[in-house]
Structure formats: C-alpha cells, structure tokens
TrEMBL record:
GO terms for cellular component: cytosol. Homodimer. Its EC number is 5.3.1.6. The gene is rpiA. The keyword Ubl conjugation does not apply. The keyword Isomerase applies. It comes from the Bacteria. It catalyses: aldehydo-D-ribose 5-phosphate = D-ribulose 5-phosphate. Catalyzes the reversible conversion of ribose-5-phosphate to ribulose 5-phosphate. Pfam families: Rib_5-P_isom_A. It comes from Variovorax terrae. Substrate binds at residues 31-34, 84-87, 97-100, 124. This is Ribose-5-phosphate isomerase A. The active site is at residue 106. Pathway: Carbohydrate degradation; pentose phosphate pathway; D-ribose 5-phosphate from D-ribulose 5-phosphate (non-oxidative stage): step 1/1.
Amino acid sequence: MNALTQDELKTLVGQAALAYVVPGEIVGVGTGSTVNKFIEALASMKDRIPGAVSSSVASTERLRALGIPVFDANEVGELAVYIDGADEIDGRGFMVKGGGAALTREKIVAAEARRFVCIADESKLVATLGAFPLPVEVIPMATQRVVRQFAALGGVARVRLKDGVPLVTDNGQHIVDVTGLSLTDPLAFESEVNQWPGVVTVGVFAHQKAQVCLLGTSGGVKTLK
Ligand code: 5RP
C-alpha cells in the first residue's frame, strides 16, 4: 500500500476527532487546513449539536457554509471540547500554534473548553518546541520593541507579510515570527512573553495545552494522552 499523503493524514485525524464531539453540546473549532477536514466531517453530525464557537473568520465562514450555526464566545459558557491543529506538539501536549495567524482567538476558545483535542499529522510531533517559527500577535506600535526583546533572548523576529505589507489579523493586529529559540520550558516562556508590553498573545500553548493528540501516521491514527 502507498504511504498516505499529508493531506490524507489530515483527513484521517479530522474524521477521528468526531468521536470527541459531545452530542447536544456546542463544540469549539480551531483554524487551519487540518481543522478544515474536521469541519467537513462535522457536517455529518450537525443535526446532533447546537453548533460551534469558532476561532477565526475563516473557520466561521466554512462552518456557516455547511449549515453549522456559529455562536459568539460570550453567548456560551464552558465548552466540552475544543478541536484544533498545531504547528508543533511535544509529548506533553505543549504546542506552538499561530501559523494561520489565529492564535489569540484559538487560545480564548481553548481556555473555555474542558478538553483540548489536537489533530495533527505526524510531521508536527517534536521532542522540543522551537524549530517552527514562533508566531506572536503584537499591537502594531510595539512590533519593533518586541523584535528587540526577542533579539535579547537570541531570537530573530520578523513581521509577517502578506502581499508585501504586514499581515493584519482578525483582531486588527500584526504577527511577528521568531526563529532561533529552543523552548525548553514552555510554561515559563509563555508566562514571560505574554506580559511584554504590546504582546497580545504568544503562540506557545502550554497553559492551554492539549489533553489528547490524534496523530495521523502511516499506520493510522495514534492517540497520545
Ligand atoms: C492557526 C493554527 C493552526 O492550528 C496551525 O497553524 C496548524 O495548521 P495546519 O493544520 O494548516 O497545519 O494555529 O493559527
């Protein structure tokens, strides 16, 4: 049998995540190409859930296009589960996220959920976080100050561009991507960077880590807890 493509692995975990959706409960939905597979799969059980809380404009549009109602996070209380992808995940469930620039809303919805189920293909599993450029959402007037603060830690931070100009997030802010850091203590790192002036959210998800990871591998879906 041929090895599965990365796209097929994403489909596999997107479908496997349905087992974690609680019938009768609103589900938290992340952002990205893996989550898009989950959203497609979720349409098959839309009559068994009231709807979703979404972490981005892009996911909201996809959910609504499939007839899945989307609620404002302020209208709902605690969520049973939040399903989202990751750019990197380690064996403890700590993640780097924000490759799709949706990290702040992702962290908000994750914080509302009792359980974070990460869906990822096996390329995302790492021993130590930090090889993927770390996304940080920053208020535009603070970007150069934040770039200097990362330089002092030995990192190189660059403002993310789209069509040649700084990308603007769903929240009207900018993203800096940081390379050259090895995140050996994700909990402490997240706490420190999150209190720098101008930082909206750092893309380390350690305080909002995954309780379950559904990893798409050539041998099928592996569940890491
Ligand atoms: C978006 C994210 C995504 O979860 C992350 O970038 C993974 O995306 P993909 O499933 O496309 O690889 O954090 O902000």
